[in-house]
């Protein structure tokens, strides 16, 4: 179904950063992930773990802990500060220094009134959470060694703090230590090494559970301060613990990459005397697990191997479906690559720099599936380092390849690219309009004459570009003017006349660029938009959602098209719905107006809107079958979905103007080979 | 044709002791195990066979202690009965006839017996009626499930008998008796990592609701919370590299024992699953584990027909070895000295097994190389062995290489050493022949021993013991004396006549008769068609006859005096076995899927005894075992069993024998006499001291023959009167007292004696 010349790009050395902390908010079903590079991401748990928000990190900002207080997200790190995030605008709201040296842990109480941080100097500091800021309240009794882990009793009256070689229980009222629980060191040579209590969990029945560097999960009684039971989970460290909402299940993440589940089970059926019993072991990681979270129906774990693993607990899942399958999230649900369609340039976005590459050229024609001779190798034109400490939030290259723009949390920079043969030079455009101070999303018009920048106020700024410089033209705002709280705009799709923007509140607005007015709003769907595109000839907006549904909306008629209604009526094929990564790009082939090109991490798909839709009985992946059939029978067997699984671990697919496809792959093996060596384990030993 | 009503086929001696889990009595003094038609009782301390519970008429398939009375044991058998025994005295208490099918396995809990039936493999709960009668028919039955594995280890009772857990393939079922409800849990056949999840065994924790299951890939899962359809949970442990054969919780539930093909007993600490202890190198793969009720002893039964008694400190304290019959390549032989049965034992060994005492005597290492327990390795095995008539020489052939291209074999000769009472290697002949040795026999004369080997290189060789000129030593080694062949034909068998004056060697269809003294071929006998398979001379009065069987279903008898065929009959004889103590010859014939036995004298073509349908498999190995004391049966049909007993080995390695009615009567009566004083274990010390004590007692009774007898009767009458009268009709204690004391007084008739000293 259509033949393309494909540029198979594997020189984008994107390296996802390791996961350091997880925090789950039950009320809004969001899980926040802190990475080693200081970035914080928010995933929507009930919307197929779609990555809703990304707050880029900074240099030298190691986050050690994350905590939700209500719907507010706080983090603390080794730089000694407590940071609150502005989740609506996806940026840091403010940072407060705790003045206790590096902070190892942060924990909010269930009442949402206080935050406790554990500092290097041995103090547990209490902060009061106010409307707009947090306020230091007092210190608990200062200890001799650093505080590694903290856990509030659900009532908020006590705090358990894990330290070197011991656990302290504090009374929050008095600030004094109530009990001191001594954790045993390892035997033999590790006798001399301190036992680090990496994680503590305080249960409502007064049980304290600790995970330490000796590899033990220990259960303590807080009344008597005695050890109830200890489980030897691993030979290495137990780094993270998490307990379920109803306190009947506990997961422990180890540095061997295993997650061990404990369950609170009655030993004699039908009786009430329950015990914590080690039950299942999940091994989905290759490296240290730095954070685990038991959410309602699954165990989420993340670690040094930079993947977020969602392991469903089938005993808690009501209906088994694609939404409750094992999920491994490797790559961001954003595009990190932008292509200059007309000039064959690609812009790769790294956290701290940008790379501009020119695609190679090939010679001759080949059979489908064969590889062509490369006449000119791809060439790195530019390495652009970011000014300042902030990491890049978004970037874009204009279709003509003359303009490069990127934005960090604090600044936006626009460059003009001069390319004469082998000499590449850039000039920074100074004197940008005031509105272009920072952007959530950037996009050039298809004729490269305008730059669209999605601002923090749910509006899109329009800037015209010319040889001399840039000029602010106007702002596109949604019709509902009374809305004061803005939402980060996710996607801007421009098509000469129309511009569509989607925000994280699942709203999609369409603007008329000629009148610079809001044209209409697409009916709000429950799932987030992951990709969309406007068809160049029919002016239909094609949208892909996180739950793998698709919609086509006619802009001119302001209604869903007939094809879209047919899709909704007939439903999509089971195999399509079971894919576990969202579609990241929607493209249209000018030569075949009925074709829509989509891609996710594992496949490339062309939807032919002129062909019948498959139902659940038809063979979904039917290319091989079709090939074997004679020409005349193919028609009756073919259906709208043509899936190509030749490429794996796809970061980006783009259709260039010369009808060639660019496929940017990042093989997971390459990512794994760049990770540090995992803990060595004997495979066969007793 | 003679009626064979009073001779029946029994499994007696050399049976499998590893068929079912052994059980240890609650005082840890006895180990009970099934062995053929019997239940055998062994002492845990001395490993001695104490006695056996005899009464089943077919294979006993399960035993379990009576939960209500720990001195009693239930046993079930393929004959469809469940029997209750007092195992200390060996008394049959009760017989329950279970009507359904053949009971295969028995599991017991509080008056409820659950048995599995072989045809449909159903789990049936049988209510054992409470009745005083000795023979009861159990009629109250209810089927629990038909989803049950054929393997009895896949069924186990849970805590206090409240539920039963059973598994088949990939499904685990838990049936609660009170609720009458079954919960099922299934696993996927394989997962991405290629785990084989089929269940292989089950054990239930004695106090907690926890089920341990073993799996084909060596995993052990501990299931909990199994009254929930969804919220059930299990933890997985993995140590075994191959299927877990058996699991057993200790009675306190503090440990879980597991075993498999690795023959390593693994002890898992319950609750802290990564703490394990190992007891390696136990022999064959572990099939069953059982623990005594006080947790002091464990028993493992192994695939090499062995029960190991292990202390709770993981020290082996006893081995009960049965007859090893895994791969029998040699003939069944009788050691003329010890009268023990000799056949392949441990790999590379010959085992000596006393059938009379049903006891393994010792293993003789023939190959003298370390055996590597790994599939697919080509290792040396003993394939042929022969004793001379006095038992002072043993010849063995060991070979390696299934294909003849890389065939490697040794002929070894072993001399019996009187000093060490065992066989010592005398000569190893590395290239006795150029091809595989087919047959081997010693001359039967007392004076000179000679060995004849016939091989596929179309030669037979005679080996003699003689001083070798090259080695100037006193010891006499064996060397080749004569090489014979006949028209380049491959020999098939060889045999000496009873007086060793003639040697018969069969070459394909021709039998050649040689004189061993001159090595002159005397004559040839030929009765085509068919290659000669078996060859034997008649004995005693029939020594002038030579018997031969051919592959074309012909049994021929030649008269050696006339060199003519005396008689021949068309019968497919798979094994021809002469009795060394009589003229009788036993012939097993395989026809239409069952084996018949004919016993006849070579002199007359009429069989003495016929037994149709002895077993359903082909019989290739049989042996006459001499009796310790001959029976004196006059019945014509049982007369042939007077001096020796015929044992035979079926293709699936069952050792069967024939027993007569008179013999069984005698055994029953002897077992009743033999009530063991169970206060003392039968140790060698006991046998010494006990005899001494018995003698003393005898002396005592002789010295006071008069004084004891009336005294005891009188006393016992009074006491009996005292104890058996209901309390409310008894006179006052003061009245009784004098009567009671009087009863202990010794009447003046005997020898002068202090009554008090007698009392103390």
TrEMBL record, chain A:
GO terms for biological process: maturation of SSU-rRNA from tricistronic rRNA transcript (SSU-rRNA, 5.8S rRNA, LSU-rRNA). Signal peptide: none annotated. Transmembrane segments: none annotated. One of its GO terms (molecular function) is RNA binding. InterPro entries: Quinoprotein_ADH-like_sf, UTP4, WD40/YVTN_repeat-like_dom_sf, WD40_repeat_dom_sf, WD40_rpt. One of its GO terms (cellular component) is t-UTP complex. This is UTP4 small subunit processome component.
From TrEMBL, chain B:
SMART domains: WD40. PROSITE patterns: WD_REPEATS_2, WD_REPEATS_REGION. Keywords: Nucleus, Repeat, Ribosome biogenesis, rRNA processing, Transcription, WD repeat. The keyword S-adenosyl-L-methionine does not apply. InterPro entries: Beta-prop_WDR75_2nd, Quinoprotein_ADH-like_sf, WD40/YVTN_repeat-like_dom_sf, WD40_repeat_dom_sf, WD40_rpt, WDR75. Residues 332-653 form the WD repeat-containing protein 75 second beta-propeller domain. This is WD repeat domain 75. It comes from Cyprinus carpio carpio. SUPFAM superfamilies: Quinoprotein alcohol dehydrogenase-like, WD40 repeat-like. Signal peptide: none annotated. The keyword Nucleus applies. It holds the Pfam family Beta-prop_WDR75_2nd. One of its GO terms (biological process) is rRNA processing. One of its GO terms (molecular function) is RNA binding. GO terms for cellular component: small-subunit processome. Gene3D superfamilies: YVTN repeat-like/Quinoprotein amine dehydrogenase. WD repeats lie at residues 53-95, 192-223, 237-269, 430-463. It is found in: Nucleus, Nucleolus.
